[in-house]
Amino acid sequence: MENGVVLTMRGITKTFPGVKALGGVDFTLRKGEIHALMGENGAGKSTLIKVLTGVYDFENGEIHVEGIDSPIINHSTQEAQNRGISTVYQEVNLCPNLTVAENLFIGREPKKFGLIDWKTMNKKAQQIIDDLDIGIDVTVTLENYSVALQQMVAIARAVDMESKVLILDEPTSSLDDNEVEKLFGMMNRLKEQGVGIIFVTHFLEQVYAVCDRITVLRNGELVGEYPIAELPRVELVAKMMGKNFDDLASIKDADDTCIKDELIIDANGLSHKGKIKPFDLEIHKGEVIGLTGLLGSGRSELARAIYGADKAQTGTLKVNGKEVKINAPIDAMKLGMGFLPDDRKAEGVIADLSIRENIILALQAKRGVFKLIPRKEQERLAEKYIKEIQVKTASMETPISQLSGGNQQKVIIGRWLATNPDFLILDEPTRGIDIGTKTEIQKLVVKLAKEGKSVIFISSEIEEMIRTCDRMVVLRDGMKVGEISEDITQATIMKAIAGGDSNE
Amino acid sequence: MSKSANGDSFIKKLTGSKVFLPLVCLFLVILINVIKSPSFLQISINNGVLYGRLIDIANRGSEIAILAIGMTLTIAVSAGTDISVGSVMALCASCCCTTLVGYGVASANKLNYPIFIGVIVGIFVGAVCGCFNGFMVARLKVQPMVATLVLYTAARAIGLLVSNNQNTYVRVEEYKYLGNFIKIGKWECPIPTPIFVAIICVALATLFLKKTALGMYIQSVGINKNASRILGINSVLIIFVCYVICGLCAGVAGTVASSRIYSADSNNIGLNFEMDAILAVALGGNSLAGGKFSLAGSIIGAYTIQALTTTLLAFGVKTEQAPVVKAIVIVLIVVIQAPAVQNYIKNRKARKISAGGGEAVAK
Ligand SMILES: Nc1ncnc2c1ncn2[C@@H]1O[C@H](COP(=O)(O)OP(=O)(O)OP(=O)(O)O)[C@@H](O)[C@H]1O
Ligand SMILES: [Mg+2]
After folding, report:
1. Which of A206, B134, B155, B203 would suit a FRET pair with A470, their CA atoms being 20 to 30 Å apart?
2. What is the pLDDT of residues B63-75, one digit of tens each?
3. CATH top-level class of B49-316
4. Which domains does chain A have, with CATH numbers?
5. What b/e sequence results for A7-40 when a residue is b if at least 16 CB atoms lie within 10 Å of its CB, and e otherwise?
6. What does the domain layout of chain B look like in residue ranges?
7. Prediction pTM value
């Protein structure tokens, strides 16, 4: 093996029934480099990682790791870990019903007299968490924390293991700039220690901020490997998509607002104990509202209280001018609402059901159990949305769990579009979605607004919200602290989030 | 990908189908029987009714098949088994018989009410038990096994209370119809009635699951309760309904079992039936972890178990030892279903495809 190389993969081929996920892919990782693995949804990034770490086996190819003479094949993630490869998978795969500390140390618990030494474990765990400045209680079960925090815990776990290779598959998909900064700091420290890092993301800025080298995949084939300096952004996009594309082109004309006078949502003093303090919010027809704030500021919680995902405990809600009582999501749906939750795995996908079923389920629930949507109609709808949001799949009968992460997200978006809502709440809709489709979704939001529908748009990417939203609501510490309706720019938003007194 | 030839895809469809393995199991059991005693398949008419091993299996398997319907749903929706069904059967039988002849009567040849009232009471009691289980599991979120353990222990005892510790014989010819043969005037139906009851129950369940969205809801809730709630399904209600249906099935099975012996033998009716019902669901290729299910598979599973039981008895295995053989079958099924084994099979398949269809893919 060449000097300075920690990992090589040569000619890796992997086939799923009906899908060639990887066709002879090469990949080389050097010591102390951060290597971006890029490609559209379904390009094969996660599959390449899972082949490497023993989640899947592969048909052809060789994997070499520094320090081992013969080619290796990992049969389990544990084996990969023992060989110095630690991984944060795209879908957080920790145990939600164990505590944070247990999750951090599962499989390598500190022992005393053959028993788990809880005290040491909790102490060490708190240490790790504090080092990362995450600020959570390690003795609380993981499910009490948001996806973003769970993602941080998963990262903390992987980083804490002594390894030669660290793999991060879309670790930043639900993180804010702050957390991303922390992560990058950590990555750079590890890089200095000579760890090779594989970094998968759809955020191009992040790639250019930390990476040294880029490998691009398209449709399971290797496009090429490039030093970062030799591949400017436009070219990277072209390489990934196989065509030229300007992802930064404006999607909204300034004078192109279509906000009507009528209110669709008029919330007064809604709250949910411990999550969101009483807030007032008015949303007009044809308006796109962005919710912004730091992680844990309550932006998801505000939306959830309106939709009834977490039932509002105080306050009144008027929809279309009529006062309503929402006890469960179905009540909200009957009033024309839709809600795309941010935690795709826990609250979005119905894993073993087909794409078709996943798309029509919400519409079916809205119609009621006795009005089964005829099979023909189901297929028509599924086909329509698979095409409209470009889900990459062999068939609509494929279980959704077999899709790549980004494609699963697209299916869930399709599910809500199928219900034809008047008011749609999108909590991190573009999570894990590639740049081409991201733009499509932003356009879609603007189009919905043009049709007189209203949208709440939540994203940890401020840039994205600036492009789509008419008005921004700022949250801090579980409280709505202000609104910005004119001059929505990165600067004004950042200032409001940080607590500039002008918006109090 | 190149499309395979028609014949090829038919075989693929067949082997890929969910009921393929269960069918193979049933076929194997029957095959062993036929080899051992060629008369196995014979069906004859004796005294105007059908006789034969196959008829016997179809007849005796009815209760398990009916229970398997409910059990399939509770397992699918909550990854939990309702272990109370056997006891509930006994309770329903007691309530049915006691209604008909009155409290404390050991044996009667006169009825207080028409028979259908008794049957309805029996089935209703089953539904009430189902409501209890459903409330515990869906609303109070008690572990299904623990929640149904209550009635597993209590129902049979309550049954004894209801029938005042007696067997309560209903010595009225018509009461035997449901569990034996229907007679109308001089004409006697040659096919045992429980077979019809099972067919009706299965047909109703299938119709209900196919013509409404209930089947899809059940799978959805079984796979991801939270996501189902967010997209507008009342998860609690769906789980509750499944347990009620399971109780209903136990009620029907209980009255049929009672009619067979025209009494309410609380100590023996439905004894260990919950195990057979659970096994039927597993044999049917359904994962006990919930989610996707196949009702047809469970029904095939139910008759496979009955065939197995009948076979063992016919081979002279003592009743007490039959469970050992059943246990071996369970182990085999569990092993075949184990993810490790399934993965192995899948990978071999995938490899075959990539090796065989290499050119097609490479293009
Ligand atoms: N378990 C599976 N069974 C069948 N097909 C699969 C499975 N996992 C992935 N695939 C298919 O393999 C292809 C590559 O998927 P992969 O998850 O590697 O994409 P990705 O590059 O990680 O995409 P994303 O950016 O959306 O995460 C996709 O077409 C997907 O449908
Ligand atoms: Mg992926």
Report:
1. A206
2. 999 999 999 999 9
3. mainly alpha
4. 5-231 (3.40.50.300), 262-488 (3.40.50.300)
5. bbbeebbbbbeebbbbbebebbbbbebbbbbbbb
6. 49-316
7. 0.88
